[in-house]
Amino acid sequence: MTGRNAGPAVREDDGVLAWGRVHRGRHRVAAPAWPGDLAAAARASAGDTSTLARGFGRSYGDSGLNLGAGLLDMTGLDRAIAFDRATGVLRADAGLSLDAVLRLAVPAGWFLPVTPGTKFVSLGGAVANDVHGKNHHAAGCIGRHVRRMGLWRSDRGLVECGPDSESELFAATIGGLGLTGVMAWVELALIPVASSAMAVENERFEGLDDFFRLSDEGSDWPYTVAWVDTLASGARLGRGVFSRGRHAAAGPLMPHRPGGPAVPVTAPGFLLNRWTVGAFNRLYYARPGSAFRGEQPYDPFFYPLDRLRGWNRLYGPRGFYQWQGVVPPAAAREATRTLLERVARSGEASFLAVLKNFGGLESPGLLSFPAAGTTLALDFPNRGARTLALLGDLDRVVAEAGGRLYPAKDGRLPAAEFRRGYPAWRDLEKLRDPMLMSSFWRRVTQGE
Amino acid sequence: MGDTKRILVLGASSAIAERWARLRAAQGDRLLLVGRDPAKLEVIAADLKARGAGDVLTAESDLADTEGAAERFAAHVERLGGLDVVLVAYGVLGDQGTAQQDVGRLEHGLRANFLSAAVWCELAADVFEKAGGGALVAISSVAGDRGRGSNYAYGAAKAGLSVFLEGLAHRFAGTPVTVVSVKPGFVDTPMTAHVPKGGPLWATPDRVAADIEKAIARRRPVIYTPWFWWLIMLIIRNLPRPIFNRLKI
């Protein structure tokens, strides 16, 4: 208790890792435990440099790091402020996890309007990256469902913003990578559900044409996504499993159970190679679940990887690169085929390859990643120059197709590529809180 | 659910107490939060309501001060409309060096961590005895298992509390009254924010809270949390003095 009243404690931490485990380094960390400590903790962590709010560290690359400077650990600010069970409006600290939101919302018949592929992210992180999910074609990004936000700025103090007040700041903060102010709280409109179960239909497809056909046919399902076998080539190129789902029409409202096994140690770097991943892909494609039709709980439907805590350790001590790009509809078929060909030809094994068609619903966010078209997400064990060469190749395909890449993902997105994909970056820079900075932002805007 | 409990949390803004209260809120229980800082209590109360608590009341009170303790405790019970579970969670980690140089601080630490805690435990025990049931849970510490040069002031108070709880558990053995003495090891909380962390010995307050829930359900009189502290303390308690004296712990 003595520590609680003695002003914000700051510690030096050498071991701060991004989720991809490629980027790591020393930070000066402060962890506020009470909303009233936020400003003092932010200033203490910044010292005479800068700081960056961080949640659960699920950004893969350098967008959640501020190497050599300050970091504000927001996970202690994890309280709900108000939850209206009649309207489904939740106001909560930005450090509250989506996991916790589901626990309080599901029993009352509410669900996240948009969720990424893990529930272990904070509300603040979800908004700062304007996350999308399997329902992008039906619901857009999470930014569309944010009603208001409380931002602490070093130059203005606490500022409340929303679509109708401080709207410029509001738009810049959605997908703003945490640079426009420290998000203190978020008010989110949840969606009603009648059951915690999902009605699901999985279906194997033989190639890319089938993927596009199934996506068109499945557009009346609120949730669609496809897994692709990136090691399949030739006639099998682009084969995979198409999954669609909707919240079940009736049933019990049960929140998910905690737990599941954890990866105890960092696996040796050779564990995931083209042969082991190839074998996994063949098994995954062939397993009965790939043709499953029926009901399943929401947890395995939305968050299969959450069942294995610390799965990023499977990639070995050198970590991995996650890569995600989107290409516009007109170029989608051609560009997606080229991307998959390049991956298949490289022999680099992507364990988790996800393909999805985004819809046309626009986000209010200034630097939001999703746009109408087709998105492909891949991850590759870090094998140094070989991996980087392949990612550079993929970047060029996306650039030629007029698409763009996801900043939260890879931590090596080239500055020129970022600026081309996000011409509004200068507007964000104008609205950036002078005390806030990230390794990513330094790299892509200052040519570090 | 249906069977909601009336719960009194003494020292509700402690990290362990707050995490445990969240588990209870999700069950729809009714809670009274007692602590020194009303602003913090309000923040926690709002959160617990959102998480499903049946009702959340707050009371500002300096728990280290036992003046009028019986009346104050009775007032809490009356506001809750009865009592099913009490968690005694407040405490002062203090600094051993300060306690050695300033006997006023030493005395304050003993008062907060042992004397007052014993008083609240006795008052709770009395209510449960008359009601014919209830669960008394108090946070002690592994620090009370053996006196060590680095924190014997804190350790002595927790040792006293551990023995007090052991006695209560003995007194209520075979009755519907449950007494649980919780002995956490290193817990990553604001109370230990100044200590460098990391490594497998550090537990989260969520983990400790989950262990407390399990201990109440299983009516365990003493729990180490996480469990491996039982083994660590078994070794430390039994180290021969010549070896123990060489350790800087």
Structural descriptors:
heterodimer, A: 448 residues, alpha+beta, 8-stranded antiparallel β-sheet, 5-stranded antiparallel β-sheet, 15 helices, globular, disordered N terminus, B: 249 residues, alpha/beta, Rossmann fold, 7-stranded parallel β-sheet, two-stranded parallel sheet, 9 strands, 48% helix, 17% strand
Helix and strand content put the structural class of chain A at: alpha+beta
Strands of chain B, count? 9
* CATH topology-level name of chain B: Rossmann fold
**Whole-Å distance between the termini of chain B?**
46 Å
Total helical segments of chain A: 15
Largest sheet of chain A: 8 strands, antiparallel
The CATH class of chain B, by name, is Alpha Beta
What is the CA–CA distance across the termini of chain A? 42 Å
Helical coverage of chain A, percent range: 25-40%
The proportion of residues in beta strands of chain A is 15-25%
- Taken as a percent bin, the fraction of beta residues of chain B is 15-25%
What is this structure, in a nutshell?
The complex is a heterodimer of chains A (448) and B (249). Chain A has 448 residues and is α+β, with helices and mostly antiparallel strands.
Topology:
The complex is a heterodimer of chains A (448) and B (249).
Chain A: H1 2-5, E1 10-17, E2 24-30, H2 38-46, E3 53-54, E4 70-73, E5 80-84, E6 89-93, H3 98-105, E7 110-111, H4 123-128, H5 136-139, E8 146-153, E9 157-161, H6 167-173, E10 182-189, E11 191-192, E12 197-205, H7 208-217, E13 223-228, E14 240-247, H8 274-286, E15 293-297, H9 298-302, E16 320-327, H10 329-346, E17 354-358, E18 373-381, H11 385-400, E19 404-405, H12 407-410, H13 415-421, H14 425-431, H15 439-446
Parallel strand pairs in A: 2-4, 3-4
Antiparallel strand pairs in A: 1-2, 5-6, 6-10, 7-11, 8-9, 8-10, 12-14, 12-15, 13-14, 13-17, 16-18, 16-19, 17-18
Helix pairs in contact in A: 10-11
Chain B: E1 6-10, H1 15-25, E2 30-35, H2 38-50, E3 55-60, H3 69-80, E4 85-88, H4 96-101, H5 103-131, E5 134-139, H6 152-171, E6 177-184, E7 186-187, E8 202-203, H7 205-218, E9 222-225, H8 229-238, H9 241-244
Parallel strand pairs in B: 1-2, 1-4, 2-3, 4-5, 5-6, 6-9, 7-8
Helix pairs in contact in B: 1-2, 1-7, 5-6
